[in-house]
Specification:
This protein has 420 residues and is α/β, with parallel strands linked by helices. It has 2 domains: 11-237, 4-Layer Sandwich (Purple Acid Phosphatase, chain A, domain 2); 245-416, Alpha-Beta Complex (5'-nucleotidase,  domain 2), CATH 3.90.780. Helices cover 28% and strands 30% of the residues. The chain contains 12 helices and 24 strands. The strands form 7 sheets. A 6-stranded mixed sheet has the order 4-5-8-9-11-10, with helices on one face. A 5-stranded mixed sheet has the order 18-15-22-17-23. It has a 4-stranded mixed sheet with strand order 21-20-19-24, with helices on one face. A hairpin with a 2-residue loop joins strand 19 (337-342) and strand 20. The longest helix is centred in the middle third of the chain and has 18 residues, at 224-241. It is elongated. The mean pLDDT is 90.
């Protein structure tokens, strides 16, 4: 059994979109897999393709489309034969253990209340003749759950024989009344081997042995079928990230004197791409300098590893100056603006044509990191804002393809007053 989460949070993982992991599931082969929280970032069409590549039942008992329809590529439960017995499997995704039995909406999907959906799946499995019931439980890694969560949750369910979860806090198996809770292997480092002892008369679980099997290729060997899948995707990733997308005649370091050439260049790209009056960016959005010469897709991902997207903002002049005053402490650079600083304080801000006009509406481009959070000065001061759904690195790529380094503005972007 596999607990899903096939999309690795790396550039290569996002490029492949879980395809390599799904094909490996088919090559092993597994009996069934659960949908993971990572897969909810996929469109229904992408998720359907992934489920097809896995070639096994993909389970998600409480996952629906936003239209309330069950996706045709997912199942609420399945039954397998092992040791002369029917074993029933179902799967739940829990977004927030702190808010049990609450609906959660995503861009394309919704998670229904887990207790109700679990009761439905267990009833269907019993009617199908399942003698043992196993729950595959995926918990949002952003919301860890302790042992007390499992005790409270399982107390609300009909009898389940075994819960297998990827929750990192479950370091060794424990029992809640008649239910065993056991952890799965974490990532690609280890797998869990779970052996159940059954009463020969009742078929009930009387004991459990759990072992973490280190996935050491030197000791265990490697599957030729899986190696073939990995090699195919590795070559595709190398070809993609090796593509040349532009050329820089001079390097763009992270910092040079009091300036930030790589972030300045990025701000200029944002402004040109979005066709706005100005752009603002945190200097920490750029993680690595760009060297002179050919620039590849891989270079772009190294410099912009975050999945930041561009946001369009409409804001009045007086509100823009107030927002800039609040943002200055974040460490920012700008395009189409000049910030006059005295020490750590912003004295005034100007546009290309002089001081900001209080009643004028300015169009600004910012990364979503500067337009999220209730207390963010950009968000709280804006008249309107809209996420473009385009990545920041896409704007930079657009500039690089057009030999797009522009000359720095006369007088600089951040003008610091000389000490008295």
């Amino acid at each position: 059994m596999d607990l899903g989460n096939w999309i690795s949070p790396t550039p290569e993982g996002r490029l492949i979109g879980g395809g390599a992991a799904a094909e490996c599931v088919a090559a092993v082969p597994y009996s069934a897999a659960a949908a993971g929280m990572e897969e909810l970032s996929l469109s229904p069409e992408e998720f359907k393709s992934l489920a097809g590549a896995a070639a096994v039942p993909v389970l998600a008992s409480n996952l629906y489309l936003r239209s309330d329809r069950k996706p045709d590529f997912l199942k609420s439960w399945s039954v397998s034969q092992a040791g002369g017995r029917k074993i029933g499997f179902f799967s739940l995704l829990v977004n927030s253990p702190d808010k049990p039995d609450s609906r959660k909406y995503f861009s394309n999907y919704k998670l229904e209340k887990e207790t109700y959906e679990a009761e439905k799946a267990i009833r269907s499995l019993r009617e199908a003749g399942a003698q043992l019931i196993v729950l595959l439980l995926d918990i949002n890694p952003a919301s860890p759950a302790g042992e007390e969560y499992f005790r409270a949750f399982l107390s609300r369910l009909p009898r389940v024989d075994l819960v297998i979860t990827d929750e990192p806090s479950v370091r060794k198996p424990f029992k809640v009344k008649h239910t065993w809770v056991a952890g799965s292997g974490q990532g690609m480092l280890a797998a869990a081997r779970i052996a159940l002892s059954l009463d020969p008369e009742t078929g009930r679980v009387t004991g459990l042995k759990w072992k973490e099997v280190e996935l050491d290729a030197g000791k265990l060997g490697e599957s030729p079928a899986v190696l073939k899948v990995a090699d195919k995707h590795r070559k595709a990733a190398e070809a993609h990230f090796g593509k040349k997308i532009g050329f820089l005649s001079s390097p763009l370091p992270l910092q040079s004197g009091d300036g930030y050439p790589a972030a300045d260049f990025t701000a200029d790209c944002m402004r040109r791409w979005a066709r706005t009056n100005a752009a603002i960016i945190g200097i920490d959005e750029v993680a690595a300098p760009l060297s002179s010469g050919p620039v590849t897709v891989g270079d772009l991902y190294s410099s912009f590893p975050r999945e930041s997207s561009l946001v369009f903002v409409k804001i009045r002049g007086e509100d823009l100056e107030r927002a800039l005053d609040g943002l200055h402490s974040y460490g920012i650079t700008v395009s189409g603006l000049r910030l006059f600083l005295r020490g750590q304080a912003l004295e005034k801000a100007e546009g290309e044509n002089g001081p900001l006009v209080p009643g004028r509406v300015y169009h600004i481009a910012v990364p979503d990191s500067l337009a999220s959070g209730r207390d963010n000065p950009v968000l709280s001061s804006a008249m309107e804002f809209a996420n473009s759904k385009h990545r920041l690195r896409d704007a930079v790529r657009w500039c690089l393809a057009r030999q797009g380094v522009t000359a720095p503005p006369a007088g600089g972007r951040l003008v610091r007053a000389k000490a008295d």
